[in-house]
Amino acid sequence: MQAYIIKEINQPPFKTEVAIPVPKEHEALVKISASALNHRDVWITKGQYPGIKLGAIMGADGCGTWEGKEYVINPGLDWGSDEAYQALNFRVLGVPDDGTFADYICIPKKYLHEKPSYLTVEEAAALPLAGVTAYRALVVKTKPKAGDKVLISGIGGGVALFAMQYAITLGCDVYVTSGTEDKIEKAISLGAKGGYLYRDVNWPKKLMADIGGVDVVIDSAGGSGFNNLVKVCNPGARISFYGGSLGKIDGLNPQLIFWRQISLLGSTMGSDQDFVDMLAFVDKYKIRPVVDEVLSFDDLPLGFQKMEAGKQFGKIVFKHN
Questions:
Q1: N or C: which end of the chain has fewer CB within 10 A?
Q2: Cα–Cα distance between 288 and 203 in angstroms, integer?
Q3: Distance CA 91, CA 95 (A)
Q4: Structural domain boundaries, residue 120
């Protein structure tokens, strides 16, 4: 079968021929119909992710068929028994375990979930990793209620867009930040109330003047800009963050946090139960993932180039043969 592996660090995924895997008793051999790209995949090619195993098949997101039915794959392996946090051996599908950028994958049957019938295979492939990460970060961690003002930073990425869609569905007023007006306008067209350019040093003052502060923040970047997120929080606000692409948070003011009773909530992926609950949530409200582009499996490296350039708005999906 055809598969994309990580052959060398700082090189794009390498397409090669590998043997079709043989499932064990508790596993299913799934024929992949569509897969999707995550920032994680780009970071792996750059060596910026723990547990990299050269030669492993890449890809965490996928939708495929087994025994005549269509399934989405939960990419979070061995979460463990505690819903509050993942076990030490928790990992995400696709490096070190062989992933979805292949014609077939062997996966324990417990990680297969029937595809919501209203979604295309391309939409379903876009759902797993970003969908469950956003669900845990927003719904499980911050517990938003109708009328809450929710700020989502860096709109355009898969998790941020899912968080926006979930918050809107729950009746929240959603605001976003982005590096471009174009992405802000697209977010507004999908239901956001407004947006701010994070490169504008005065954006926190503008937000406070416009809406008086926010009750929930969802962030993936960290870095020095995190301080601005704290500044726009109302008393009792919850900040949930699931990444740190901009590095350490310098200059954080603890007085502002404790005096306003602000909660800082770290979040990573989601438990098996979170995945089940996320699928039920999107199915109930018929939420469709925002897909930036569908490429052929042969053009997978082009998707990496687009994501690395930050040009996507939504998920980049690959249609398999």
A1: C
A2: 30
A3: 9
A4: 2-127+289-319
